[in-house]
Amino acid sequence: MMMNIATALNTSPLQAEDKTLTFDYLDQLESESIHILREVAGQFERPVLLFSGGKDSIVLVHLALKAFRPGKFPFPLMHIDTGHNFTEALDFRDTMVETLGERLIVRKVADTIKEKKLTEQKGKFASRNALQTFTLLDAIEEFKFDACIGGARRDEEKARAKERIFSVRDEFGQWDPKLQRPELWNTYNGRIHKGENVRVFPISNWTELDIWNYIRRNNIELPSIYFAHNREVLEWEGQLVATSEFIKLDAADKVSVKKVRYRTVGDMTCTAAVESTASNIDDIIKEIIATKTSERGETRIDDRVSEAAMEDRKKGGYF
Amino acid sequence: MDILRFITAGSVDDGKSTLIGRLLYDSKSIMIDQLEAIEKQSKNKEDGEIDLALLTDGLRAEREQGITIDVAYKYFSTPKRKFIIADAPGHIQYTRNMVTGASNADLAIILVDARHGVVEQTRRHSIIASLLNIPHIVVAINKMDLVNNSEDVYNNIVIDYAAVAVSLGLKDIKYIPISAINGDNIVEKSANFHWYEGQSLLDILENVVVADDVNYTDARFPVQYVIRPQTEELHDYRGYAGKIISGVYTVGDAVTVQPSGLTSTISAIEIGGLQVNKATAPQSVVLHLKDNIDISRGDVIVQTENQPNVENTLEVLLCWMDNKPLVPGNKYLLQINSRVVRAVVKEIEYKLNVNSLQQEPAPEKAMLNDVIKATIKTASPIPYDSYKKLRANGGAILIDETSNVTVGACMIQ
Ligand SMILES: Nc1nc2c(ncn2[C@@H]2O[C@H](COP(=O)(O)OP(=O)(O)O)[C@@H](O)[C@H]2O)c(=O)[nH]1
Fold it and tell me: Is A261 exposed, middle or buried (0-12, 13-18, 19+ CB in 10 A)?
């Protein structure tokens, strides 16, 4: 005979800490992600967690705490620094790593450009997004990483919707959507040949709203740029881009100070801000529920290049 | 608010993509920029209407060829539930893809074209749903607008399907007439089906009870990782990290570690660093035992009074998923949860015709998408339960050791 949950728990008095009766969708997502992180720890020799200081990777670190404390993380954190980051995100990154007492590796795209004589993009929003892949692949080779944990979500983009949780990449980091391994039950096959690596996405099944609700429930701290603040921005094809030394301004450009916040935190050259007065998580969640535009659509300049922009970048070794 | 994972199954053109697009659209999960992208692509279509099916076609090759290659995951939520859709495409590789999508599903929507009724594919999808033990089935009879919303047509299909369901032993089945393209009976009940007394599709999805599908009786805890900080203050800390896949664990429980058979008692349970007295599936926890015994990744901690089978000969229903055929005598790795062992497929007993459920004579080799009954011998004993009884501890994958690819899905009998 199968018992139901109420009977199962009524066999002895409930403890105050028993969370089971209120185990909801966020708890389920959390448990699934912790399970995935522990599979990485169990299956790989040299994993790494890619940490950018953005909300998704902050949530990943938080999940890793729940998965491995009081032990140390069985992997270092790594940031691929494009040199175009928001200072707020970098400061946050450093403070967080110090508080945690975990190891952070930083590899700079600028160094790769110098070393490999790469050509930088030109133009108004010259972005290092594409060059970032070179630095990442070099770092994977340098440290012999066999698994890279990333904070990508399947709700972000159509190509991501098809990617496995354990996504095998060849030695060039390339993703071949037609050669994906079937992924059944909660069994993850992380076996690879020498030189290959696996990209692991523990929060694949979370949506943007799930992330925010989880941040709220767990009082997770975020960099200040996620909350409404005054910033000088350039209006460009309906998007608001922060002015900075990385963006070329022309005389005709419309620049003004607006109250904005960020929905995603990437490079200053390819991440747009949204107008907002939301200064706390509750207000942000309200705005996200009401919004009519997707996270990437509203804030990522890099996806608008072509309908298949993300798919192409992934095939080339990008996250 | 909880999570419902479901798959949609149908033959090509039954309206699967349209239905999913409709659910996403009507639940307001589609944003303006995504709609604009679809509109751009829908321009080529004559009627000028936006093509909701485009929402689910993710990759360029698919958009170019108008086919769906692989399983895609889609998300939407209502105030009642978060929904995860595994959208498996309906052609050549169908069995493999549907098996993958079905392995985690709480519910399957089986689409039937009202004009064609129950066809061979309907049987095949239902057989796969029953093989994978999906607890809830919704038979959605689509394109009702093309049969004048006829109650007779609907009733005849229900009668036909009920016979299939009985032969497969499917349990919880609901029937619903819909028109995916018009949104009839999807979110709201439609006046076009005044004779239909059931709920709308979304209503069914929001209210089907899945909490009781979790097995709280047979406690199983596969160890994923051992936490040993080995610092001064935590010198003796040794925690077994893993996810409770079924059952309930309480401090003080007498437990056995399988396959070693060593016994101990649970001394503490931690969830996210907090001590609790009791934890249940599907929580990720850390267990501590009174005795310092040898336990490592792949071991399963169970309650001593309720044991799994621990054996090295397994009878399995096996779905073959690789282009290279399965040849009896070949060696593979078998992975069940966190345990990986060497295994050899001994013999094929019969091949299951997934369209008719007939047992056909054993072929020499099993080909891609074949479902066979076979005997597998493992190099060391594995703790398992029959898939029918406990999905979480009865499903295993086969891995080709030379290519590292996942080549088979086993439902242990
Ligand atoms: N008349 C009518 N046509 C439909 C309905 N649902 C889908 N279709 C059409 O059937 C065709 C196939 O639909 P699609 O969703 O692409 O099918 P899939 O191959 O199962 O994903 C498309 O032309 C749809 O517009 C319906 O309820 N009524």
Answer: buried
Q: Which helix (H) or strand (E) holds A261?
A: strand A255-262
CB contact (8 A) between residue A31 and residue B227: no
pLDDT higher than 80, residue B24: yes
Residues 6+ away with beta carbon under 8 Å from B233: none
Domains of chain B: 3-212 (3.40.50.300), 220-303 (2.40.30.10), 309-412 (2.40.30.10)
Q: Please spell the DSSP secondary structure of A164-222, one letter per residue.
A: -SEEEE-TT----GGGPPP--TT-------TT-EEEE-TTTT--HHHHHHHHHHTT---
What is the three-class DSSP state of B307? coil
**Quick one: average pLDDT of A159-176?**
84
Closest chain A C-alpha to B88 CA, distance in angstroms: 10
A4 to B216: CB separation less than 8 angstroms, yes or no: yes
CA of B233: which chain A residue's CA is closest?
Answer: A70
Res. B69: pLDDT tops 60: no
Angle between helical axes of A208-217 and A25-43 (0-180°, round to 10)? 100
Does residue A8 surpass a pLDDT of 50? no
Chain A, 231-290: which have a CB under 8 Å from a chain B CB? Answer: none
Q: How far, in Å, from the CA of B53 to the mean position of ligand 1?
A: 8
- Residue whose CA is closest, atom 26 of ligand 1? B143
Q: Which atom of ligand 1 is nearest to the CA of B56?
A: 21
Tell me, yes or no, if A61 comes closer than 8 A to chain B by beta carbon. no
Q: Which of A17, A19, A31 sits opposite B282 (nearest CB)?
A: A31
- The reply to whether ipTM tops 0.90 is yes
Residues of chain B neighbouring A159 (CB-CB closer than 8 A): 58-59
Q: Which two tokens stand for residue A126?
A: 């010259």
Q: pLDDT averaged over chain B?
A: 89
Q: What is the pTM of this model?
A: 0.90
Alpha helices in A218-280 (DSSP H): none
Spatial distance between the Cα atoms of A55 and A260, rounded to a whole number of angstroms:
17
Q: Check residue A196 and give left, alpha or beta (phi > 0: left; psi -120 to 50: alpha).
A: beta
Task: Point out which residues pair with A79 in neighbouring strands.
Answer: A106
| Domain annotation for chain A: domains and CATH numbers | 24-209+310-315 (3.40.50.620), 224-304 (no CATH)
A vs B, Cβ pairs < 8 A, gives 215
Q: Quickly count: other Cβ atoms within 10 Å of residue B293's Cβ.
A: 13
**Residue B216 is nearest to which of A5, A29, A187, comparing CB atoms?**
A5
Q: Collect all residues of chain B within an 8 Å Cβ-Cβ radius of residue A183.
A: 100, 406
**Residues of A with Cβ-Cβ distance to B409 under 8 angstroms:** 182, 184
Give CA–CA dist A117/A120, Å, rounded: 9
Long-range contacts for A85-89 (Cβ within 8 Å, ≥24 apart)?
Answer: A85/A53, A85/A267, A85/A268, A86/A223, A86/A225, A86/A242, A86/A262, A86/A265, A86/A268, A88/A223, A88/A224, A88/A225, A89/A52, A89/A53, A89/A54, A89/A223, A89/A225, A89/A265
Q: Do B224 and A154 touch (CB under 8 A)?
A: no
Asked if A302 reaches chain B (Cβ–Cβ under 8 Å), the answer is no
Name the closest residue on chain A to residue B69, using Cα atoms. Answer: A178
- DSSP state letter for B367: P
Distance (Å, rounded) from C-alpha B348 to C-alpha B346?
7
Give chain A's end-to-end CA distance (angstroms, integer). 46
